[in-house]
Amino acid sequence: METISEDTIRRNLHLMPKPEEPSAGYRIVHGINVILRIVIVIMMLLLLFRIEKVDVTGSEKITQDQVIKWLGEDKKSLNSLYAVWEYNIRKQPLSPAVESAHVTIRRPWHIKIRVREWPPAGMIKTKDSELVFNRDGMVVATEETDDYGVLVTGLTPQSGALYQKLVFDQEDTLSEILTLLDYLEQNALAPDEASWEGAEDGWRLRFGSTYASLGTAVTEEKIQQLAALYPEVSGKDGIIHLESYESGDEIVRFEQGAP
Length: 259
Known about the structure:
3-stranded mixed β-sheet; 9-stranded mixed β-sheet; Ubiquitin-like (UB roll); Rossmann fold; 2 domains; alpha/beta; 12 strands
């Protein structure tokens, strides 16, 4: 068998005609075709994944129509793929009315949204409405709900628009209210009412016929002590005096029969 030397192979390869490079016109046409294909794919995705049906879970008050309206405020969110990116990955707010939203795609055009409403922290009654607010002080309802947290009395906000923070004459008033409600929640205390009795007496809590006087300074130590003492006097007519309480070494007085 005749063998072909390596030099012969190299000469033959050298003599073979080189393939012609694509012309500039060909490259332009090819580039346009690629772009058109990409555009077609994008359009198909936009049409195929356009939201037509929404199932809402996690809330009895928020309806499908409301969610579709909120999605429509950002036109891109009417695409189910974009909705997953926006609300599951980027954690963007669906609406001020809900704390969070999670999207599940059931069909390209059919999604399920599990919403979590803002849990109410308290309510302030005004002449015109009942302002239910969350732990950030944002008004989440303007009428009394079944669960509104702690009723706060003795203070009237300057304004309380829906999905806006409460505004008071004194800038630190809202912060004081939220701090008090936060301490109460941490210590599993749910008074019927938290009343501001004025600059001299401060805060007073009511648990049925049992009261707790906190004074003007609300501290975590006072609420912790209240949580420890309240089970012993629960249901009794009287008032727990914590106005000047600072540490665990102090004696707390329960004035029976007051106020």
